[in-house]
Amino acid sequence: MATTDGEWYDSRTVRAIATHFSPGYEPVGMTESYVIIGDGIAGSSAAETLREEAPEADITVITEEGEALYNRILIKEFAKGKLPEAPISIHDESWYDDRDIDLQLDTIVTDIDPDGHTVSTHEGATIEYDKLLIATGGTPTQLPVDNADAEGIHHFWTFQDARSIREHIEDADSAAIVGAGLLGIDLAAICGAQEVEANYLMRGDSWWRYALEPEGAEIMHDAMRERGVTPVFGSGVDHFETDDDHVVSTVDPNGEEFDSEFVGIAIGLDFNLELLQDFEIETDDGVVVDEYMRTSADDIFAAGDLTRFYDTILGEHAQNGSWGSAKEQGTIAAKNMIEPETDAFRWVSSYSITHFDFPFLSFGHPTLGEESVSKKYSETEWRRIAIKDGKVVGGVLIGDLAPQSGLKQLMREETYVGDQKEVLLNEEFSADDIAAAQEQ
Ligand SMILES: Cc1cc2nc3c(=O)[nH]c(=O)nc-3n(C[C@H](O)[C@H](O)[C@H](O)COP(=O)(O)OP(=O)(O)OC[C@H]3O[C@@H](n4cnc5c(N)ncnc54)[C@H](O)[C@@H]3O)c2cc1C
After folding, report:
1. Interatomic CA distance for residues 261 and 123, integer angstroms
2. Does the C-beta of 351 come closer than 6 Å to ligand 1?
3. CA separation, residue 98 to residues 92, 94, 184, 205 (Å)
4. Three-state secondary-structure class, residue 183
5. Which pick of 134, 200, 222, 392 has the fewest CB atoms within 10 Å?
6. Would you say residue 320 has pLDDT above 80?
7. Among 405, 328, 324, 318, which Cα is nearest to 366's?
8. Contact status, residue 110 vs residue 118, Cβ threshold 8 Å
9. SS3 309
10. CA–CA distance, 204 with 245 (Å, rounded to integer)
11. Nearest CA to 178 among 70, 251, 76?
């Protein structure tokens, strides 16, 4: 917009001046500009919601990846050789064109100027925003040991990672997996599906020991063994041996050597926070946001894996790395970017594993809580519920997932169960069991 002295101001500046002189000023026909960094599920769902709710807005989505949104959950099925590429893609570029969303692929945002309301890219472009969404997720943590960058050693986050895992594992005769969590077990299952014998090196005495107990973990260990994956406890990685820059074996801290032409590492995620280092914004191993996905910096929102969000169910800040949660955070952020405090984030997440003959599901925050109840029902059925201040805060179900809806309902409704925790273990549990018990 041109001013009388011939200078040009962007829409945000015009709005700020107008609001200053005329409180309550509402621009007519003025378009807001929204910039989203990251085209994962959080960024993409925010773009979709912005377009639906603000048909006139300028929307730009910038991603460092060379492809538009794909289903990160399904890339393991591609790596197993069970799915071709096509069904993994969610949006092609025409999806953005059709919605008049400016998608910038292969573009890295290198700087944010919160005062100037601009972001800069690695190609030297500067893009103005009225509201900015940071949805940059994380990057797999590297193992700080010798030869960790040798050929044949893989981390797992992107579709490109899945392509190189698939290409490489098909030629491997032996494998080692490191990282006893939800992504590590995907890598183990890929070895199983590709019929490559693997050792799964774990530091502790069981898989996902912070969420499971020995009885539940043993079901998972047996399932791994059936797929040709051997769990090795009290182990880990001291270093890798290489031949001609290619990994050939993994040596654990006990000095034991495991043949491994393929190595998969999943020891955690480093949140992509580099962009936030040069200005004042609250971080705490993640970007701190309130229930409206607002960061502490004006006009900057964040959504997805990298947030430490205010969990309205727990009544405290929490973190969650799951597809459904990231999607919902993107949607909620978009609504609040358009109109402040429209909608608060309130969500019980779930994360399922379908590698074995029985289903597995974790929900909420299974590693939180000061107490828990658990029960084994059969060789492949087990349940554990985490409880904090007398309320369900998460859990793990193996074998029978039917109780999940009742348990999630109790968590969502913050129902007090402290005086009837054992009821949560009823074989055919429903939320009504708790109400019935309370009435007695
Ligand atoms: C193999 C695998 C299996 C999984 N399985 C499940 C599952 O079964 N169930 C489940 O609920 N969850 C699962 N997850 C987790 C789930 O996929 C994530 O929680 C979710 O995708 C996070 O979405 P996000 O949008 O927050 O971040 P991401 O998907 O990580 O997206 C962030 C994007 O930002 C881009 N970016 C980062 N920095 C910049 C920058 N400076 N400039 C431009 N772009 C940038 C990144 O390249 C990336 O594309 C799985 C994850 C993986 C890797």
Report:
1. 38
2. yes
3. 10, 6, 38, 52
4. helix
5. 222
6. yes
7. 318
8. no
9. strand
10. 30
11. 251
Kindly give the distance from the C-alpha atom of residue 322 to the centroid of ligand 1, in angstroms, as a whole number.
9
Query: HSE (CB half, 13 Å, CA atoms) of 426?
Result: 17
**Residue 3 burial by CB count (10 A; 0-12/13-18/19+): exposed, middle or buried?**
exposed
Rounded Cα gap, residues 144 and 132, in angstroms: 34
Q: One-letter amino acid identity for 432?
A: D
Instruction: Give the pair of three-digit tokens for residue 159.
Output: 């579709």
Pairing of strands 307-311, 316-318: antiparallel
Closest by alpha carbon to 380, among 414, 356, 403? 356
The rounded Å distance from CA 40 to ligand 1 centre is: 5
Mutate to test the pocket of ligand 1, among 73, 106, 360 (most ligand atoms within 8 A of CB): 73
Looking at residue 175, what is its pLDDT?
Answer: 98
Atom of ligand 1 at shortest distance to CA of 321? 19
Distant-in-sequence, close-in-space partners of 398: CB < 8 Å, separation ≥ 6: 216, 219, 220, 358, 359, 360, 380, 381, 382, 383
Atom of ligand 1 nearest to the CA of 43: 25
Tell the residue number behind the tokens 């790596």, with chain if given.
79
**Which atom, in ligand 1's list, is nearest to the CA of 323?**
11
3-state helix, strand, coil in the chain (%, to 5): 25, 30, 45
Give me the residue label for tokens 């087990």. 382
pLDDT digits (tens, 9 = 90+) for 356-373: 999 999 999 999 988 999
Within the chain, what is the greatest distance between any pair of CA atoms?
80
- Partners of 127 in the beta sheet? 119
Mean pLDDT score, 240-268? 98
pLDDT of residue 23: 52
Give the tokens for residue 373. Answer: 């109840």
Tokens (6 digits) for 328: 């919902």
Dihedral pair phi/psi, residue 250, rounded to 5°: -115, 130
Quick one: tokens of 172? Answer: 């491997």
Q: In a mutational test of the pocket of ligand 1, which residue from 36, 63, 67, 72 has the highest number of ligand atoms less than 8 Å from its CB?
A: 72
Would the CB of 186 count as within 6 Å of ligand 1? yes
5-21: pLDDT as tens digits: 434 455 555 555 555 55
